[in-house]
């Protein structure tokens, strides 16, 4: 037993010379950074098993590969994290004459004792792979999603939704890639020849079907627990519930980004509107990442509004909490990396588009002045000044952040232009498409900022009639799929091709609706392309 566990700092805080909050059973600072808290009692360190007597004195054994602990390496050696559960859950059985095996069994972190092997495997995948997808810079103390891992033992609802996300991600990684070539594009390319690119599986694995079943099972358990939590909101940590709902949204995006996400986004927005300021004695590890959770929910809300026809969407910028400040605090490391000012303009354009959808075409000119104001505001946004003043953003990413934001700026202008089929004489949408292609050419697919490029790529691809640009959009999304195998990337390709088909085959207004944005909205689907 620990002696007076709260009377001195935990071992991690003492080693790093930081002020410990001395919480029991574990330090909240360790939980926040995703570290395993080493506690307050006597610390025993295994020093590679060097023998101190006998024939083996001064010698040791190499640790078998399948018993090595999973180590998260970082640039900061002093803040590296070690996850003590093994990722290799099916190690080869050692020979009975191999005397090393009994000596090197990696102890299971008490945090994960009692969990079955699949759960440990999925938590490992969440920690090593999926967490990295959710941020731009996956460095110590900068990825709030890692702090959810040690918290999930105390919250089964959080454990199940994390397992569901990880299992669905493994399943998604095993899906076949999409066909890169479009018949209408190939027919217009020089010499009418197309390179046959086989549709292949990115990660072949026999466990894909099993992972899908595990994801659905964990999702069902999470839904049941979420229903119970919502029925008892006064006694439930609302920050926990909003976090779980965000992970539900991510789960739907990993799956496909179609339809099911909307109920979760609307539920999250209602809960966010009821959030209250922190009290000093009420801050929990989950509450500490509230800004990121809230920011991602709000961004999904706006992006989901772009292709959804609804006049009932809540205006996030009219909520009683300071939404703009929350969004700006999260700009540096949100994987969506959408400038707050442009996000506000985009939401106003979504509102305008929904109004235009309900009006006869003869009354649309009444909205032109408002669309013109939004267009001017988007064009006036100073991208370079914004990128140079993003709070907490590393300076080495500033040039690429500028290119990414300029792509978003041009995409927002295209959306405003198409929201009411508005054709200003001084704007050429094909020039905007060219600008998007130019700026995204600076963003290598392996650059973490590439995760923020799917929406402008989709907008450029859906807008253009140029077959070469259409092929570029297909290629760009395919490259993104290779580094971000989330289902919504494939949905973006599907919806983009749908926009082309509606425009190319009909040669007239679809159902009396003009412009590809309104045509897609008229289909009544709910797509979320992030």
Automatic annotation (TrEMBL):
**Coiled-coil region list:** none
Q: Name one GO cellular component term.
A: nucleus
Gene Ontology molecular functions: DNA-binding transcription factor activity, RNA polymerase II-specific; transcription cis-regulatory region binding; zinc ion binding
Q: Which organism is it from?
A: Aspergillus flavus
Pfam families xrefs: Fungal_trans_2, Zn_clus
The protein's name is Zn(2)-C6 fungal-type domain-containing protein
Q: Where is the Zn(2)-C6 fungal-type domain?
A: 9-37
Question: Where does the record locate the signal sequence feature?
Answer: none
GO BP: positive regulation of transcription by RNA polymerase II
- Family annotation (InterPro entries): Fun_TF, Zn2-C6_fun-type_DNA-bd_sf, Zn2Cys6_DnaBD
Indicate where this protein resides in the cell.
Nucleus
Principal subcellular localization? nucleus
State the UniProt keywords alphabetically: DNA-binding, Nucleus, Transcription, Transcription regulation
């Amino acid at each position: 037993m620990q002696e007076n566990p709260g009377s001195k700092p935990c071992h991690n805080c003492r080693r790093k010379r930081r002020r410990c909050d001395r919480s029991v059973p574990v330090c909240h600072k360790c939980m926040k950074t995703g570290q395993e808290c080493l506690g307050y009692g006597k610390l025993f360190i295994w020093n590679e098993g060097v023998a101190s007597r006998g024939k083996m004195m001064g010698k040791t054994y190499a640790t078998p590969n399948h018993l090595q602990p999973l180590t998260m390496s970082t640039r900061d050696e002093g803040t590296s994290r070690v996850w003590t559960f093994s990722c290799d859950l099916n190690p080869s059985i050692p020979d009975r004459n191999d005397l090393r095996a009994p000596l090197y069994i990696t102890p299971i972190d008490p945090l994960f004792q009692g969990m079955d092997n699949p759960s440990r495997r999925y938590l490992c995948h969440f920690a090593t792979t999926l967490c990295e997808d959710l941020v731009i810079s996956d460095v110590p103390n900068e990825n709030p999603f890692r702090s959810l891992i040690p918290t999930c033992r105390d919250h089964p609802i959080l454990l199940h939704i994390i397992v569901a996300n990880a299992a669905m991600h493994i399943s998604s990684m095993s899906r076949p890639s999409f066909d890169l070539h479009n018949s209408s594009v190939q027919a217009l390319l020089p010499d009418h020849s197309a390179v046959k690119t086989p549709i292949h599986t990115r990660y072949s694995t026999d466990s894909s079907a099993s992972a899908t079943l595990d994801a659905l099972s964990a999702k069902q358990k999470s839904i049941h627990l979420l229903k119970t939590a919502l029925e008892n909101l006064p006694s439930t940590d609302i920050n926990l519930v909003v976090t779980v709902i965000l992970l539900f949204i991510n789960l739907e995006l990993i799956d496909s980004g179609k339809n099911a996400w909307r109920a979760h986004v609307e539920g999250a927005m209602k809960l966010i509107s009821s959030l209250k300021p922190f009290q000093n004695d009420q801050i929990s590890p989950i509450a500490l990442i509230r800004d990121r959770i809230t920011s991602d929910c709000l961004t999904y809300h706006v992006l989901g509004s772009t292709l959804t026809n609804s006049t009932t969407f809540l205006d996030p910028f009219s909520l009683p909490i300071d939404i703009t400040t929350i969004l700006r605090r999260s700009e540096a490391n949100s994987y969506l990396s959408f400038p707050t000012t442009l996000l506000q303009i985009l939401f106003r354009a979504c509102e305008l588009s929904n109004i235009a959808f309900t009006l006869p075409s003869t009354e649309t000119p009444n909205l032109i002045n408002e669309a013109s104001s939004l267009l001017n505001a988007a064009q006036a946004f100073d991208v370079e000044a914004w990128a140079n003043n993003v709070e907490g953003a590393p300076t080495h990413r500033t040039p690429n952040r500028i290119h990414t934001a300029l792509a978003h700026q041009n995409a927002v202008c295209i959306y405003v232009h198409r929201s009411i089929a508005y054709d200003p004489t001084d704007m050429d949408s094909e020039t905007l498409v060219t600008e998007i292609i130019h700026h995204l050419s600076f963003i290598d697919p392996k650059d973490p900022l590439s995760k923020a490029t799917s929406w402008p790529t989709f907008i450029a691809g859906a807008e253009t009639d140029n077959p070469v640009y259409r092929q570029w959009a297909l290629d760009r999304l395919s490259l993104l799929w290779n580094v971000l195998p989330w289902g919504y990337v494939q949905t973006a390709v599907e919806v983009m091709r749908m926009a082309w088909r509606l425009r190319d085959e009909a040669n007239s207004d679809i159902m009396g609706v003009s412009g590809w944005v309104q045509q897609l909205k008229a289909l009544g689907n709910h797509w979320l392309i992030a």
